Fold:
Amino acid sequence: MALSPMSACMTKTLHIVGGGMAGSEAAWQAAHMGVNVVIHEMRPKVETFAHRTGNLGEMVCSNSFRSDDDEQNAVGLLHWEMRAANGLIMATADKHRLPAGGALAVDRDPFAESVTQALMDHPNVSVEYGEISELPSDGHWIFATGPLTSTALGAAIQAETGAERLAFFDAIAPIVYSESINMDVAWLQSRYDKGETEEEQKAYLNCPMTKDQYEAFIDALLAADKSEFKEGETAGYFDGCLPIEVMAERGRETLRFGPMKPVGLTNAHKPDDKPYAVVQLRRDNALGTLLNIVGFQTKMKYGAQTEVFKMIPGLEDASFARLGGIHRNTFINSPTLLDDRMRLKSRPNIRFAGQVTGVEGYVESAAMGLLAGRLAAAEILGKPLDTAPLNTAMGALVHHITGGAEAKTFQPMNVNFGLFQPVEGLKGGRRGRKDRYKAYTDRAKVDWQAWLAAQS
Ligand SMILES: Cc1cc2nc3c(=O)[nH]c(=O)nc-3n(C[C@H](O)[C@H](O)[C@H](O)COP(=O)(O)OP(=O)(O)OC[C@H]3O[C@@H](n4cnc5c(N)ncnc54)[C@H](O)[C@@H]3O)c2cc1C
Structure:
């Protein structure tokens, strides 16, 4: 059947919903590949509690893109990859850079104004201001509506995915690099040794506490500095994901009957010692390099978290891939909903990108926009593209959200080296870290350049 002029135009145009970090970068990439792009941005007509302007690419809080070290830091590597891919967000950040040591901080208003101007000036880009409240059944679409996706669109997404696959708050438990845990203290065991296979019977890593250690831990939790919810955020705790400090405030024994209960576990190092409380960690990625502290979502400030969590026996020298938090944050269960090219499995004409996919932060969101923009444009141009290589920062992150992460406990993720496949033959532990990170970043740069070169 011949396409009508209207539907032909719909199939060639890429519609991007949301002109934040992800949507702006997606639009820039697709437009440079020769595809016509329409950005649908609801601001300033419909506002959010965090944005202040109608600009595209507005930074809602801090003005930092974090570390710019592309040899020893995973987010710095992501900067490098985006710069190599002609990224708008990185080029504009470089233009409006402020002194900030090793971090990339920017002058936020000129930054967002420049992002807006660059997109407005691009002959392949147009911007339509207004809210999109449905998931369209045809045309090519990227939804990059961020942590504050409008209510009506949230309802439409839930209608498509099922209510339980779209969250409105995150409840992030701290994530620890498994190599930094003291296994002379901790041991592997599932409660009551449950599970058919040995792997299941040893699915948890347990850190035991004596009564004195438990009491000191509760005192520290109660005394720690905490963040408040920002204005406009409602404290939407569900009883299933209360912050641990709130549980401790409800009674000193509450945690011992909750996430720290010591039952069904035998200390492998001291079988005759009955622990008074046990902290459990569980695998957070298929590689097993990252473990989350089960049930330890928290509103403690970051500095306080590291101090308090290092009181847990076995975690004295822990390195954290990310610390805990609870925020207003709309995100889908990407591991079950998206394919490896970021398409909604139930409606492949729709991609998701940015923070709504369950990545966290300006840089990660822009990165997912860059990738979704290229993947969508390549598809429209009839030259489908493989997703980013696994050993790049971009690839490690997209692989995590679209399959590597545990779907049942999926929570937003920053880019970090725990997501990377190990480089064989290098020393583990703290001592080998510098060489290991350099090997990850060297390998990533080669693979990223090859991926880009294959498209030119
Ligand atoms: C209060 C708060 C503070 C934060 N602080 C930080 C921080 O300090 N550092 C950091 O790295 N990250 C922070 N974040 C996370 C930050 O929002 C993301 O890192 C980043 O902005 C996400 O980029 P994005 O493009 O996915 O979403 P956004 O940048 O939020 O862009 C999404 C866009 O979609 C638009 N939109 C939403 N729904 C619709 C609709 N139905 N139709 C049309 N347009 C729509 C929105 O108006 C918005 O412009 C914070 C988030 C919040 C909520």
